[in-house]
Amino acid sequence: MRIRTIKIQNFRLLKDFSLDLEDDLSLVIGKNNCGKTSLLAVLDKFLNHSDKSRFYFDDFNIDFQNDIKALVEGPAIDYDNYKPIGIKLKLFIEYSEKDNLANISKVMMDLDPDNNFIVLSFEYVLPIDIIEKLRIDYAEFSKKEKLKLIAKGDTSGIIKKDLFYFLDANHSDYFKISRKSIEYDKTLNTENDSNYIDLEKEKISIKEIINFKSINARRDVSNKDIDKTLSVQTSAIYKKTAASDDQKEAIDEFKDKLSETDTILTGIYSTLFHKVVEKVKTFGGIKQDDSIIEIISTLQHRELLEGNTTVMYNHGVRTLPEHYNGLGYMNLISMIFEIEILLQDFRKKKEEKPSDINLLFIEEPEAHTHPQMQYVFIKNIKDLLKQGIVRDDGANGELQSILSTHSSHIVAESNFDDIKYLKKDNDSSVTAKNLKDLKALYAADTKQYEFLTQYLTINRAEIFFADKAILIEGDTERILLPTLMKKFDIDERKRHEASAIKDLALPLLSQNISIIEVGAYSQIFEKFIDFIGIKTLIITDLDATNASGEKCEPSIGINFSNDALAFFFKTATLDNLKVFLIENKIFSNTAGTWEVNVDGNLCLVYQTEENGFIARSFEDSFIGLNRDFVNDNKDNFKGLQNRAAFDIATNAPYALAAVCIKKKTHFALDILYHSNEDFSNWQIPAYIKEGLSWLKQG
Q: Which of 18, 70, 608, 620 has the fewest CB atoms in 10 Å of its CB?
């Protein structure tokens, strides 16, 4: 039995949200503020009855708040067509003939043997019979507030305490929690909200069906010597283990040893406390041999570990206490301890059966840990969780896990098919995407898909957490681009200061931009770029060729060999590319086809005419624009050869790049090494500048 899909409506950014779950582990990723914590929160609020289960008005999605406003302040309501509105959570559960159906039989809506789904719905909604009361109550509240204004001499009629203020304090008087099992139509692959079983009225508990536990990001881990986080957890592990009786033999031996120790300590105590006992006897009101106090040892196995167990770690020939560990290592150990505690909770006491579904949510396990430790964690967490909730008595339940993370290192060591990518559509909505769905998009060329998955997970997983991306070709761009962006920011700041015009866009280096080296394969990433939907700049080379297909200077070229240019610009010729403006280089994807669109989220730039010269690659572009800079420093440029060629003014930049550059990476490093403090002694090639300018906006 497994949860296949989670649907959420109107909870914070999760306006109309759907998340598919894998059998074992689902890895939920995305940049900050994209709904990962909200996902945990709404599950906890509905599935666990704790203090945290209370809803707040700020939990209402922004668009939904406006819907409520229209409902309360608008015209008369059509009650015949009204559907209760509010925060909703739906769990789509799939079962098989192998499962024990005793618990879910109470909530089955369809006895069709081909329909193996049940849908559990949890709602915090405005019922139809309370709407009118809300409208009347708010109208009365608003009337009173207006009278207060008049009394103060304010005739504007504008009250600060509006509907949102009213609901912030009073929404729980009108919105009610309900729990239902609703009909699932397998033919239409949809749920029918109008046909349901009210779990509250039928007094059906879902705890036997679903048990939800979580490990929050804000974990109580400290390496202060007064804190003993790990030691306290050992006590909790023992208590849970004893309750489930999974290690009966070891526990019985522990209790026997405590009893023997009690006898020994009681004998010692009789000597140790003899004097004070005798003094007590001298006080009045105590008859001889009556109410004689005695101090005995009463070691309690459940409480003993809490204050008297210390976690140590080996350090050569010595052992050191837990607080000598770094926070990262302690966090890892603490998580393992907490997982073990929760697994014991899932197993339940020996007289109880585990729930049919056991859902564990681990939030941001990477806290305080360095990259290598994050690699180790994700490599081993699956194995740890797979051990699941197996009990000695054979009463086992299923275990599903959700792990949310901001760590590209954890993503890099994860199964691509397990990843769920959360993307913010706008200020009020988030979408979840299964990365394994990319496989269908690359069905025509599975080799491309294999390359993409391997490359992204092993080398460049940080793109999943970026707002924008730059795809570059090779080592030269990789070395220089951060500096090019820094110089661009400096130049832009100077330009705006000189014009006294405020720059409304953040500097590039203040934005969340991922730089991905893709070689000559940027076109392979096009489906992925569209899939994750982030603004992307591709920086590539013109790669002009002659009639024989050999590389040449663009001024005499008749074609180009760049596959990315051919893919995006389709039928465009080299002559077309030479005259295209920036608006001709911006694309959007429509039905799988990239078309020129000035409002698109992908831009592809390449060398353009500058100083009367069109370059073929970055090197000759840079030389053509910064010949004096290179010439002044050529004797110290380790990436150059044939330096005397720079002394001949008629030598074109293309020829100089071809003859003089010994190694491109060294040439790039030479540029950095000989730059002045603000990089003002050289200029950025125009094609890169126009691309960075486009990327900066929005």
A: 70
**Once rounded to an integer, what is the mean pLDDT over residues 440-455?**
87
pLDDT recorded at residue 31: 85
The beta strand positions in 508-609, using DSSP E, are 513-517, 535-539, 544-545, 559-560, 586-590, 593-596, 602-605
In 3D space, the residue among 60, 66, 67 whose CA is nearest the CA of residue 12 turns out to be 60
Closest CA to 397 of 345, 335, 338: 345
**For the segment 5-41, what is each residue's pLDDT rounded down to a tens digit?**
999 999 999 999 999 999 989 999 988 888 999 999 9
Residue 82: band (very low, low, confident or very high) from pLDDT cuts 50, 70, 90? confident
Written as six digits, the tokens of 441 are 């998009």
Q: From CA 605, how far away is CA 577, in angstroms rounded?
A: 10
What three-state secondary structure class fits 4?
strand
Per DSSP, what are the bridge partners of residue 179? 122
Cα–Cα distance, 195 to 193 (Å, whole number): 6
The answer to whether the CB of 685 falls within 8 A of the CB of 610 is yes
Structure tokens at 692: 């960075």
Element holding 472 (H helix, E strand): strand 468-472
How high does pLDDT run on average in the chain?
A: 84
Burial of residue 285 (number of CB atoms within 10 Å: 0-12, 13-18, 19+)? exposed
Spatial separation of the C-alpha atoms in residues 54 and 45, rounded to whole Å: 7
Q: Is the pLDDT of residue 222 over 50?
A: no
Is the pLDDT confidence value at 218 over 70? no
Query: DSSP for 342-367?
Result: HHHHHH--TTSPPPSEEEEEEE-TTT
The sign of the CA dihedral 254, 397, 28, 376 is: positive
Collapsing DSSP to helix, strand or coil, 381 comes out as helix
| Residue 678 burial class via C-beta count within 10 angstroms: exposed 0-12, middle 13-18, buried 19 and up | exposed
**pLDDT confidence of residue 321:** 43
CA 246 to chain centroid: 36
Cα gap 299→521, rounded to integer Å? 69
- Token pair listed for 566: 């051919």
Angle at 216 (CA atoms; ends 212, 217), nearest 5 degrees = 155
Q: How many whole angstroms separate alpha carbon 172 and alpha carbon 609? A: 66
Please tell me the pTM assigned to this model: 0.81
Task: Report how far residue 528's alpha carbon sits from residue 583's, in angstroms, rounded to the nearest whole number.
Answer: 23
- Reading the block at residue 366, the tokens are 């990477």
Per residue in 137-166, pLDDT (tens digit) is 999 999 998 888 888 887 776 778 899 999
